[in-house]
């Protein structure tokens, strides 16, 4: 054989196009199989799913210890997943099964039939005083609010009002850990991860139920 | 990657999204459509396991193709239904593709290629690996890999051409 040019790349790719028959559905079922296998072999460090809600799409993520992150659309789900990859583990897959309970309880919450959550939580994303604050928040009853100052007092540091604000603003588990029930002393809403409109909607929902 | 610059690894989900189709095409070309699914699953489960140890900034696609290459060989060794190294494969009919559109013919033609040619075509044309990298997987020189790839493509073309002329005569012949 004499010198021969390599075949044109694009032309060969189109020649091989029949290999693509049914590729999309095959990938979808292989992805589901991977999620199952990963769960069974304990190689899935973070499972996540995205659910619809009255305050927009919510990202739910769980480790094998429990729910580790709830994120609003406003936080940008891709950035949230990247941050989880950086701080916890990059072994992350969309694997809905681990989030079934969380999705169901949130659904019940939004329809007004659930007033508190019964989910195992993984607080590994927060430490120290912030963790203290978050652990205290579920004691604010459904349908009522507390001021940042009141929460600071209850968490044992009456002067740490600003730190309570930071703890709420960086709450990795909004909705489930109800930082939306913490408002300013003058009665105004204060900021919220999901936007002040979402905070208002949640307080209205709880007041109506 | 520049020194001091941290490149963070993407969530593995993004790797599956971006590379899943390519790896499945490669497995289909190397193993045939039926065994490709198992090889894909083995590849991505092994990749997920090893992902935290992959150096940041590494070529993820080349890494996956390397794993897929080994998993496909494992499948052949484990005695899968359709063995890779055969000189004269038995006639088999694929359940995929619409008869007469050339799909089945192409799949048959790929299956009948010698393994090295099939792998060279898959890794170079489907996965886009340069022939240096293909040679690293197959052994031998880059030139030998390039020749295997080119020979493979030529065989595919002539197999398809033969089928097409047959199809033409039979459609007129009304057997």
Question: Overview of this structure, please?
Answer:
The complex is a heterodimer of chains A (209) and B (175). Chain A has 209 residues and is α/β, with parallel strands linked by helices. Chain A folds into two domains: 31-110, Double Stranded RNA Binding Domain, CATH 3.30.160; 128-208, Orthogonal Bundle (Arc Repressor Mutant, subunit A), CATH 1.10.10.10. In chain A, 41% of the residues lie in helices and 11% in strands. Chain A has eight helices and six strands; from the N terminus they run ααβββαβααβααβα. A four-stranded mixed β-sheet of chain A has the order 3-2-1-4, covered by helices on one side. In chain A, β2 (58-62) and β3 (67-72) form a beta hairpin. In chain A, α6 (148-154) crosses α7. The relative contact order of chain A is 0.12. The model of chain A has no long low-confidence stretch (mean pLDDT 93). Chain B is mainly α. Chain B folds into two domains: 1-84, RNA polymerase sigma factor, region 2, helix turn helix motif (Rna Polymerase Sigma Factor, Chain: A, Orthogonal Bundle), CATH 1.10.1740; 96-175, Arc Repressor Mutant, subunit A (Orthogonal Bundle), CATH 1.10.10.10. Chain B is 67% helix and 0% strand. Chain B is globular, with a radius of gyration of 18 Å. Classes of the chains: A alpha/beta (209), B mainly alpha (175). The A-B interface holds A 4, 6-7, 9, 12-13, 15-23, 26-27, 30-31, 33-34, 37-38, 41, 43-44, 46, 48, 81-82, 84-86, 89-94 and B 8-13, 16, 20-21, 24-25, 28-29, 33, 37, 40-41, 44-45, 48-49, 51-52, 96-97, 102-104, 106-107, 110, 121, 125-126, 146, 149-150, 153-154, 156-157, 160.
Give the class of chain A from helix and strand content and strand pairing: alpha/beta
Name the CATH architecture of the largest domain in chain B. Orthogonal Bundle
Q: For the terminal residues of chain B, how far apart are their CA atoms?
A: 64 Å
Strand content of chain A: 5-15%
The low-confidence runs of chain A, each spanning 5 or more residues with pLDDT under 50, are none
Largest interface, with counts of residues having CB < 8 Å to the other chain, equals: A-B, 39 and 42 residues
Q: Count up the domains of chain A.
A: 2
Query: What is the CATH topology of the largest domain in chain B?
Result: Rna Polymerase Sigma Factor, Chain: A
């Amino acid at each position: 054989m004499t010198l021969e040019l390599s075949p044109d790349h694009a032309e060969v790719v189109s020649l091989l196009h029949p290999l693509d028959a049914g590729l999309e559905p095959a990938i979808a079922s292989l992805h589901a199989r991977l999620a199952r296998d990963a769960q069974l072999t304990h190689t899935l460090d973070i499972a996540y799913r995205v659910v619809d809600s009255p305050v927009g799409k919510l990202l739910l993520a769980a480790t094998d210890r429990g729910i580790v992150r709830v994120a609003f659309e406003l936080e940008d789900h891709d950035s949230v997943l990247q941050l989880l990859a950086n701080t916890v583990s990059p072994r992350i897959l969309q694997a809905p099964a681990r989030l079934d309970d969380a999705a169901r309880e949130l659904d019940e919450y939004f329809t007004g039939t659930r007033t508190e959550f019964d989910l195992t939580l993984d607080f590994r994303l927060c430490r120290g005083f912030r963790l203290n604050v978050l652990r205290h928040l579920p004691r604010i009853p459904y349908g009522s609010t507390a001021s940042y100052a009141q929460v600071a007092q209850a968490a044992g540091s009456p002067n740490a009002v600003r730190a309570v604000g930071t703890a709420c603003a960086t709450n990795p588990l909004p909705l489930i850990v109800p930082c939306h029930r913490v408002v300013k002393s003058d009665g105004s809403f204060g900021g919220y991860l999901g936007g002040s409109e979402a905070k208002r909607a949640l307080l209205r929902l709880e007041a109506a139920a | 990657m520049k020194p001091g610059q941290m490149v963070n690894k993407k969530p593995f989900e993004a790797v599956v999204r971006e590379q899943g189709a390519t790896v499945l095409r490669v497995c289909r070309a190397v193993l045939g459509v039926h065994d490709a699914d198992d090889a894909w699953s083995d590849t991505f489960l092994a990749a997920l396991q090893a992902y935290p140890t992959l150096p940041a900034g590494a070529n993820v696609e080349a890494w996956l193709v390397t794993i897929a290459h080994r998993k496909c060989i494992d499948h052949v060794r484990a005695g899968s239904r359709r063995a890779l190294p055969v000189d004269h494969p038995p006639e088999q009919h694929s359940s995929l593709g619409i008869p007469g559109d050339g799909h089945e013919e192409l799949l048959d033609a790929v299956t009948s290629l010698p393994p090295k040619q099939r792998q060279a075509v898959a890794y170079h044309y489907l996965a886009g690996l340069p022939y240096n990298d293909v040679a690293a997987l197959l052994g031998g020189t880059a030139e030998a890999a390039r020749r295997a790839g080119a020979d493979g493509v030529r065989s595919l073309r002539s197999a398809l051409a033969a089928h097409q002329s047959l199809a033409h005569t039979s459609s007129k012949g009304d057997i």
